[in-house]
Structure formats: structure tokens, C-alpha cells
Design goal:
This is IclR family transcriptional regulator. InterPro entries: GAF-like_dom_sf, HTH_MetabolicPath_Reg, Tscrpt_reg_IclR_C, Tscrpt_reg_IclR_N, WH-like_DNA-bd_sf, WH_DNA-bd_sf. The protein is built from eleven helices and seven strands. By secondary structure, the chain is α+β, with helices and mostly antiparallel strands. A five-stranded antiparallel β-sheet has the order 4-3-7-6-5, sandwiched between helices. A hairpin with a 5-residue loop joins strand 1 and strand 2. Helix 6 packs across helix 8. The radius of gyration is 23 Å and the shape is elongated.
Amino acid sequence: MSQTVDRALSILPLLAEGPADLGQVADRLGVHKSTALRLLRTLHGHGLVYRQSDQRYRLGARLFALAQEAMENLDVREIAHPHLVRLNEQCGHTVHLAVHEENEVLYIDKVESRYPVRMYSRIGKPVAITVAAVAKLLLADLPEHERRALAEKLDYPLYTSRSTPGPAAFLRELEKVREQGWATDLGGHEESINCVAAPIRGADGRVVAAMSVSAPNVVVTADELLTLLPLVRRTADAISGEYSGRTPAELQ
């Protein structure tokens, strides 16, 4: 029975490449046409494949409905949390998860540093949108016209001498982040706090959340924190893969 299920499920990736006839399905599975036909009829009965007028088969509408329903019920925080905890255990620093909602970037999860110096960020609190690394990643993924419109509407408080001074500089920073695929906040919000961040992507490749590692200068320097970037990006890729059901290579 498990072999039958395996064969039936193997048909779906084949049809994702485009419509295929009975012979093509049988050849791909390495089975007789009668066996392939039984599998296709079963999948057709559940709405997972559809037989066209030219007798070729394609993916059925029911499959897309199920996928959409599954995506709508995914909780990125629930999926990400174990990964954030593991990253915190590896590096010891504060780890954040953030999303873009209704013109704000909000922290939706936080794992505290093991060091006595703590950050004042809180779950549910908006981030400093013009300087925070997670905000840069989320906003950089917006279409260009939306980025420009948003940049013109924002205020640009000068938290420190490294804060983003205005819309032109902000747009340049977002373009840089968009190209390199990661972001930093090196003393832009607080002189003594540095941060590196990486994007979490959905099945369509769009950024659905961003995660970061932050630490004060008294614990590690900015250069030392930047050495954690590969680990941060691997963690973000692992979350993306679990959230989207795709491999990191497919999400690029």
C-alpha cells in the first residue's frame, strides 16, 4: 500500500511541470499503463488531477484549494520559534522575529540573550522602521512604487549619528538590502546596539517575515556580530523551507 501511495504522490510533481498523457505518467513511474490509469483515476476522483479534452492530465483545482487553505493556516511564528531558540543557544544573543502589518513592522517573537545586558524590545511593539534591520528587509521586498511612496511618508528621527537621514538615503539602503539579501543596523537606533538580519520567504519567494540577532557593544563588537551572518542566514533559510515547503535553492 505504501508503494501505491508513493507512486500516486509521484504523479503530482510530474504534472506540476505541465500536462502529461497516460504513457508519460507510466514511463515516469516505471509502471504499466493500467497501473498508472488506476492511480490517475483515484487522484481524479479526489479532484487532485484533471483529465483534459486531449486526454492529457493536469493538476486539479482541489489541489490548489488545499494548498491555499494550508498556507492561510500557517503560523510563521510557530514554525520559526524552535529555530530561533536553537540560534539563541548557539550564539547567546537576542533573537527577534518581525512582520510587516498595516504600515508597521512589529516584533512577533523574541528570545532573550543569555548575557545580563538586555534589550528593551517587546513582542507586539513596532520597530524603529527607518533603521531596524528587520524593517529594511521587509520593506525592501515591496514593489518599487510602494517603496517610494512609503519612503516619502515616513518620518526620519535621528536616533544617533548613524540613523537614516531621509527618504533618498532610505531608498538607497533598501535597494542595497534587496540586492544583497540581508540587512544590518549598526548603531542606527542605539549607539551601543548592533543587529544583523535575514529574510524568511514564502512559497512564492516573497519575504513574509524577518529575523535578526542583536547584541550590545559591551558583549561583542559590530565586526564580531557580522561573523554570525552565515548562521543567521542558514537559520532563516531553514525557517523559509519549513514554512513554504520548498528548498532554499527553490526560494532564490
